[in-house]
Structure formats: structure tokens, C-alpha cells
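Much of what follows relies on a compact textual record of a protein's fold. With that in mind, consider the following protein and its fold in C-alpha cell form.
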Amino acid sequence: MKKIIATLTLLLAFSVSVNAQAKKMSNQELAQKDAIALCDYLNIQGSLKADFARLFEMKYEVFNNPEASMERKIELARIMKLKIEASLDGTQLEKLNVKKDFFMALTGENQIAEKKK
């Protein structure tokens, strides 16, 4: 009986720890997710998708770093917005500006606004 209880306890402990590890996504995975969402929304193909993935990876490295200052995060969000705007043509930029919340999530401005509250 003791062995059965011990086995069930260990099984439950390992399954909880595996679930906790599975939920945390890496910076690279988060960046890929953002790049795919942006490219799917704007119908972007080719190397620009990889460029956006690298850009978003840089964002997540800074935003997930507890030592990064708020000023650095604000400046990075500004630079990201400019880089995204420079990479798109006029119609794509208009389409992206229609979804302000989506654009702010991509640049990280929404996270900055939440922390300022």
C-alpha cells in the first residue's frame, strides 16, 4: 500500500513539473509566433519573415530581461516600430495601422503601457 501511494505521489509530482516546463516558451518561439502572425496578416512571403523573427527575438530578449531598464524598453519599442514601418509598403502599413492593438503588441508598446499604470 505504501509503495502504491509513493508511486502515485511521484507520478503526480513529475506530471506537474512537466506541464510547468511545457508552458514556458523560449524567446525564439515567441518571436517566431509573432513573425508568423504578422506575415500571415499582411501576406508577406520570403526572407522578410526571417528578418521579422530576428527582430522580435531581440524584443523578447530585452523585455524578458529583468535587468533591462524601462528606458531601454521604451527605446526598443520605438526602434521596432520604425523598423517594421520601414520594411512594409504603403498598403501593408495602412492595413497594420488599422489594427493598432496588434501593432502595439508586436512592438511591445502594450507591455510598456501596462507597466506604467
